[in-house]
Structure formats: C-alpha cells, structure tokens
Amino acid sequence: MFLFLLLGHVSCLASSHFVVVSTNKNGGHETVYALDSAAKRSTPPPPTLRSKFRAVFLPTGPTPPGYLSFSALNALQDLSTQLRGVLATQRILEGLGVGRADATATSAILNFLVRDGCGMFATLVFTATAASKFAGDVKRWRLLADIMVDIGITLEILAAQVPPQFFLLLLSLGNMCKAVCGVAAGACGGTINLHWASCGSDIADIQAKFGAQHAVTASVGLMVAALTTQSLAHVPMRQLWTGYWILTVLHIWINRKCMRMMAFKGLNTVRLRLLLKHYRLESNRPLPTPQQMAQTEPLLFLPTRQTVPAIEYGVSFHHVAHKMGHEEVALRQILQQAKRPYWIFVAQPQCIMVVLQKGISPTDQAKAYFHATLLAQKIKEDKDLEDREVDVQWNHFSQQCVQAGWDLTKTELQTHGYHIEIQAAK
C-alpha cells in the first residue's frame, strides 16, 4: 500500500502538468502555483472577503456541532448587555449630579471609589468561597453569572430613581453583583472554550476569536448608544423600563439556549445523579447521550430533596472520625481492609461519607459515587451490599456510559475539597 502511494506521488511529480495548492489555515485563502513551464503563471488572487472574515472571527480548526449558532447567540446576548449597560451608565451619571450646579467632582469620585471598593471586596469573598466549585458545574455557574449581571445593571438604573441617601447603597450592590458575574464567567469561560476546542481546534485561537466577536458587539453597542442617547432622555420612564425588561428577558433566554447547545461529555454530580436514576428506574433502556442530557439537565441552583441516607462526598478524615465518635478500632479496620482508592463510612443518623485517596483518577471518582449511591439504596431496602455486586454493577453501568458517548476520564464531581494520604507516623 505504501509502495503504491509512493509510486503514485512520484508519477505525479514526474508529470509535466501539475499544480501546488497552498491553503492558509487562518481564513482558508488558497493560492495555486503551476509547475508547468508552458503554462502562464498568474499573480495569486488577493484574499476574498469571506476568507478575511473567517480569519478574524472563526477558529482555524474543526469545532463541535453548534459552534456557529452558539457564537451568533452569544453575540446577541452580549449586545443586549452592552445596550443596557449604556442606559445604566446614563442613569448613574444623572444620579451623581451631572448637569446640576451643586454637583462636585470630589463627590462623584468618592462615590466611584466606594462603588469600586465594594466590587473588589465582593470579588475576593466570592472567589474564596466558590472558586473550587466552578469546574464541577460550569453551566449553572455561567447562567448564574448572567443573572447576576442583570441584577447589577437593574440596581444601577434604580439607583438614580430612589431617594439620594440610598443611591450609593444601590450603586455599590449593583457593582458587587457585576463583580460576582466577572469571577464566575471568567472561571467558566475556560471550560467552555475547551469544549469548543475538543475537535482539534486551538483553544487560544478560539478564545481570541471570541474576543474579536465581543469587540464587534461592543462597537455596535457604542454606535447605537451614540445615536440614541439624546432621544432616551425624552422617552417616558414606563416605555424605557418596558424596553429594558424585554432586553433582559431576551438576555436570559439566549444564555439558557446557549447552555443547552453545549453537550459536555464529562460527568459532573448532577449528570451522574440523573444517569444513576435512569439506570435504576429504566434499566432496560439505554442511558441518555450527552446531547440528550444537555436538553434536560437543570441550569439553575434550585432546592432539591435531600437523599436519605445523605451522601457526603470527598470529606476529610477528621470529619469522618468525628461523625463516628472517634471509634479508633472501627476506623483502623475500614482503612486497612480497603481495596479501592476510596473509603466509604456509614454513620448514624443515616449518613454515607466518601473519603477519596490522593491521586484518585476521575473514573474511580465516578465509581466511588456510584458505590455510595448503591449502598444508600441497599440501606433503604434494609439489604447488605457485597463488594462483588459493586464491581459487577459498576462494570455494567460504565459500559453503558461509554456506549452512550460519555467520557468517564473527564469526570468532575462536586466534593468537600479533601483527599487523604496515609503516612507512617514519625
């Protein structure tokens, strides 16, 4: 086979009539060079408008299905935010007294300093409390970020319509909401870009192209603002709020649709729970695919019914010892008998605690949660669970996951943040 291809390549080169096509991967522009002494060589044509457009706004490599739709909708929601942001800026300046004789620059600066300081404080506090949770629930955190920026813009617009003593409070709260959005959106953006680069595209290129798309929508927003700023001052407040709420609802709806477009193949806690529920209740049917799951998984942080027994996943060993009354003999026995890179402890009142070993693989993390869920079901049924049954059921479940298109090596479950390592006492 190799010899045939080689001979074919050589025969092509030996021919007196062939051309060499050079394709620019950044935009798809092609140039053709004819290696034929009798042929008239022409000057390479200039890049087309389409190739220039691709070079600026679209990734060079292949992307998963839905990228173009996602980019278009993302640009629309960005434009919605830009337009409402301009309106908020106008109201803030009015609240600061721009145009009034009694307004001073010092007062405006102090208001901005307090506002920005509150935003920085919110950034630090939110990062400290939520930084470890973003990777395990990208879609819900990303949608929450968009809702928070909507709340922030709304508070900024309201600030100019409340009594003056509440102006700074609402202005600061609005900026704190926008700071929360900045942290969550920035943290989730990397995972989203990685998803669109999963077919072989360069993640840095995808991120740069999203930046270019954002620059265009920002420019359009500025132009619209420049054309409408004068007229907005004369629009009745009721009509202004009607237009604002239409843009806000559109913004949330578009972002929800964008989240539905992304079919992550990795499991998080929510997806794993849904798969386990389907596996337990509809064992005769195939598991949902990532595409099917993307259309049904929850996108909001809503209260859910607590499972009984409760599963505490990725807890510290100190927490386990405290829950079990520091029974040293029982704790030592469980640790020594473990044959897996995780340990499961059952405490009263009914509580299942999963302790993860340092360096545990993503697949074993999924198995640990599967084991805990299976044990919880057996406890509810007042039955015993044998190790062999765990292995048999896990093998069957994991095979179904792979057949449905899930990648267990990309598992990212929500934990309490602890891994343990057993060391010899010094």
UniProtKB/TrEMBL annotation:
Residues 288-382 form the Root UVB sensitive protein C-terminal domain. It is found in: Membrane. Residues 1-16 form the signal peptide. Its main location: membrane. Keywords: Membrane, Signal, Transmembrane, Transmembrane helix. InterPro entries: RUS_fam, UVB_sens_C, UVB_sens_RUS_dom. The keyword Transmembrane helix applies. Residues 49-280 form the Protein root UVB sensitive/RUS domain. The keyword Membrane applies. GO terms for cellular component: membrane. Belongs to the RUS1 family. This is DUF647 domain-containing protein. It comes from Fistulifera solaris.
